[in-house]
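[Q] Does anyone have a clean structure-token version of this?
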Amino acid sequence: MSEVLVNAYLDALKSMRERDPRPLARRARFIAEELDSDADVGMDRLLEHLRLADANDLLTRQLGLALFEWDSRPAAEEWTAGTEPRTGERRARVHELLGLGTEAAKILDELMPHARDTSTIISDEFAAWYPPADLTSRSFYWDRYRSHLLEGKHWDPEAIGSLDDDTTRVLERVSDPVRIEAFSARGLVVGYVQSGKTANFTGVIAKAIDAGCRLIVVLAGTLDILREQTQRRLDMELVGMENILRGRPEDDPGLAGSHDYADDPDWVGGKFISYGFLPSTRDLPDVVRLTGRGSDYRQLHKGIIALEMEKRDKRKPLFDPVNLFACGARLAVIKKNATVLKRLVTDLKIVRKQLGEIPTLIIDDESDQASVNTTDPRKWADGQIKRTSINALLSELLTLLPRAQYIGYTATPYANVFVDPEDSANIFPKDFLLALRRPKQYMGVSDFHDLDTVLPAEDRNPATSNEEAFVRNLYGETADERRLELASAIDAFVLSGALKLFRETAGAQPGLFLHHTMLVNESHKRADHAETADEIREVWRSAGYTSGTGYARLKDLYESDFLPVCRARSEGQPFPEHFQELKDHLGAAVRKISESGAPVIIVNSDKDLAQEAIDFDKRPVWRILVGGTKLSRGFTVEGLTISYYRRRTRQAATLMQMGRWFGFRGGYKDLVRLYIGRNEPDRNMSLDLYEAFEAMVLDEEDFRAELGRYSELVDGKPQVTPRDIPPLVSQRLPWLRPEAPNKMYNAVLVVRRSPGTRVEPRAYPDNPAEIAHNYDLLAPVAARANELVTLRGGPRVTFDAYVGLTPHQDLIQALTGLRWITNDYFQPDLKFLTELGPERIRDWLVIVPLHSDHRESARPLAGIGRRSVFVRSRQGRNFGAISEPRHREPAKFVAGSADSTHIDDPAIRAYAHPGRGALLLYPVVGEQHPPAIGDSLDPAHVTLAFELYSPADACPAGSQLVQFTVRNPARAGDAIVPTQAVPDQGL
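[A] Here you go.
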């Protein structure tokens, strides 16, 4: 294709940057006239170029990025003609302004569909200032970072557009650096584990420097390994070579190859961003590093001048534009450690006179760790706040810097939203909480679970089931059984490595498989790590990978496991149909894994071990990593393919952070395997870790869904602000708390309105007398379901059920009298249901599902009739999941739930009616229930468990959906809409 065409369209797009779309082909023709008057750069030639271009074509990527940005611009901009962002109508308007015909618009939409997804933000009211009117001339660091992602890292244009959109939403909610009145905002950005949070805060920092922030403090976790990784990432992608060298040529004798990255392959290979000049030589701010890759913040002493900001006009404050935009920015990437933070605070006090003038940005990575004040407020003497050491230093830092903007980043937000919102010197995200959209190509918790699948277990396979494809269960109890399971995981590691090498020879992107790792996480104890490493070495020595026995074992694993998954999930990546084709690659994989003498590296803080350093930046790593805390938060394990996980915890946030198998797995998603404990002994019970992860992801999805519901404005004002978020956090398993108890206090949910949304209680009593009491209340409701029908639960899925109608007041009377493990368990949902009068809800369709063999297995139940009885396990005292996904579709349809309006089932359509809810009811017994007396079951052992969907239109449009109160009214302030104080019963 013509170079003239590419350059003409690139220049045309550049001329429209930050502006409304203009006739594209006409602009390109005008530009091409100066390059080659005979060149054909018409729309047909552009479309031909786009069809033939590969994924890394610059013009394709720039055009995709421009379209995404236009798709996402606010409807208030005049050129949009009122079309809403990320809609077909907005894209049609863009096509019109670009001067595209019908056929060209159709082709462009096929190649680059319009953006639909967006991040969710809960925000207090604010006055947007970003981007300022004069930013274009100063947008230096963001423009170069954006270009680096597009051209250097080959990011998808939509991902860059999303990053631009999200970082703008963050910046517009903090203080304008040139604002005269000092204002300190607090915000929280919630991402997914290993999903690109660093890229987001790098973008925020770039825009903040361009806008005028002049002190940047990045709190990069509590470990050196994470701080160094974050420092290098910022130096490589934002600070740039010229700022690192301070404008001196690299061959300057004074440097003598001694700077941070002199021996870094990416520095030598030209992968660090380079501006071509020291920014201050072009009247742009330099970035002065106060920390280096191998050096955390040290007290500056005589070098304190590095913190003193230069002024052009000493009569004016630093934040005055005359001074601010000519001043260099300071960057400190520091570990969350009391000693290090004290050094910074001490140095800042030396330049105290200027602190009130410095626009500052504090980025707190892993902000739920160490930063939160976890002291119990009930134990404070005379109400005086007592702080943990890190939290106290953070509070002092924020007090010293009245123009500091604090933004926390985490994948597990629970600790942050449970912070006391009335503590003005604390880090509660009072101004906003941004929940980032899930990135494309990301493997998260839901990719390893079959959430809401309607397929029976016997019909699931690697193509239809995430669990079948990626999860391998560990049940071993004896040492020999556990060793066999570990050996199988190591076999999978070798086999997946061979498949990566096969793909390299088949033309995979260079460097895609630079690293290949397996993670073993069984314990946080360093002594256990050494023992596990010894066991891995022994398994490796006895594996016989060069023998016929080892070859036969790998062949069986390939044909029974990897080949079916590759066929179903390879997404175009090559794989051999015959194991024989892998023979040479197997030998190469074994050699790469053991070339350092041992296949295993211990990664922990044990200084008594002569540990091999792990540095993904300096060399390829093909090893098995054994560790705990160092590998369970923030730190990216590159090339992770096989995970062997048996480590127990009772906190959801901790569990989520241990999920290092989440992340981007480009080119080898089908090779990823999770070996996970299903029966791990802990205290007086066994923990199913896979079930715990599933409960955690459902809680997380509920939390994000709640944020999405409440992010809509009512009468132009927020329904909820960040102060109202704590009660939105749910907990499915009683033993798996969202956070540690000392991080959860003060907030209590009074009413939760859930129109059209699934409500499934789990905390049914286990006392026979209370079970019988509940049975007597709900049996008349169940008895009304006396018509046997066949219902459709999804494509190719049907089931039989008894159905019938019950009046709303009758159901409320039954639900009101129910007893639970904790008395207030169901109250927020019940309060909503009791609010609904006859004008909102008339009656309920009761659905009592049956087993497929119900004619043989049905049991007579007192006062109800013959019905199927469902066996459900308890985790602790609570039940696990009660309902089955295939039973939910008819219930959701009756209630008018938006995600089930497609159902085409005459049997259930006949029951759908405005103002009607749906109740799924299950006669449930525990796994250890007493034997039946004759053919019947004692009601004292049968729990009538339910799931309900109230009508989707049960709430008036725009009504508030949640109400809260507080445990401690003395500290309530205006944080939560109070109705009454309630006793402290623990969350």
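[Q] Thanks! Anything notable?
[A] Confidence is low (pLDDT under 50) at residues 738-747, 964-987.
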